[in-house]
Structures are given as C-alpha cells and as structure tokens.
Amino acid sequence: MIFIKIFQKLSQFSGKVPLEHWVSRIAVNTCLNQIESEKVRPELRQADLSEEEQAVVENLEVSSEELAPDRQLASRQLVEHLLQMLKPVERVVIDLLYLQGRSVEEIHKITGMSVAAIKVRAFRARQRMKAQLEKIGAQTTS
After folding, report:
1. Do 24 and 75 belong together in one domain?
2. What is the C-alpha separation between 61 and 64, in angstroms, rounded?
3. Cα separation of 110 and 117, whole Å?
4. Does one domain contain both 131 and 72?
5. Is 85 found in the same domain as 133?
6. Which of 16-36 are b and which e, b meaning 16 or more Cβ less than 10 Å from the residue's Cβ?
7. pLDDT per residue over 114-125, tens digit each?
8. CA–CA gap between residue 87 and residue 122 (Å, rounded)
9. What's the domain range around 98?
C-alpha cells in the first residue's frame, strides 16, 4: 500500500528534500492514518474478550428459536425497553431495518427519507441503544 502511494504521489516530489525522507514521510503518514482508522472501527477478536463477554457473544449467536422461552421473553423485553428510549423516527428506522428485515432502499420508499438520513438515524439509534445497554449492564453489576 505504501509503494502504491509513493508512485501515485511521485509527481508531487519536488527534490527539495532527499528522496528517503520524502518516502519515509509517506510511510509514516500511511501508518498513522491506518492506526487512526482502526480507532474509529476497532477490530475485536474472540481471544481479546473476557470469559463473561465470550458468553454474551455465544448467547447472541444462538437464534431466538433455540433460546429457552423465559430467555426469549427477557430478550424481547430488553429490546422493547431499548426501543422506547429512542426518538420515534429512530424507532421506526430500527424496527424496519432490523426487526422487519427491510433494506435501506425499501425504507426510503416507505418513509420518504433519504438513504443517507436512514443510515445516519440507524447509526445514532444503535449508539443510543448501546449506551443504554451499557448503563443497564453497569447497574446490574453494581
């Protein structure tokens, strides 16, 4: 990737600094940009999770049909509680996108919202739901 960037920017090399310095700057900047992008969307590995977090992930992998009836009810109540914390527009987007399994294009046709607005509202709603879930988790562990 670094070599590609060097060749792409070769026309920008002025010769005022040694070629080695110019190439090293491109390499350093490319690496810094990669690190910054990983902060925005970090990669999580199963091995990095605690045993408790691994159990939660394994429970999420199980389909709702495989859950015990009491756990199905508890899961449904938790989702409903989290949905109630959202703004009505966000609730509609989450319901259509995840609970009804509609595509973004279908939601656009149903609601008249732009595709970008749907994606932004879904992202913000997920962030709010995640924050609420973390709050609930913190309260239950206290």
Report:
1. no
2. 9
3. 13
4. yes
5. yes
6. eeeeeebbeebeeeeeeeeee
7. 999 999 999 999
8. 11
9. 68-141
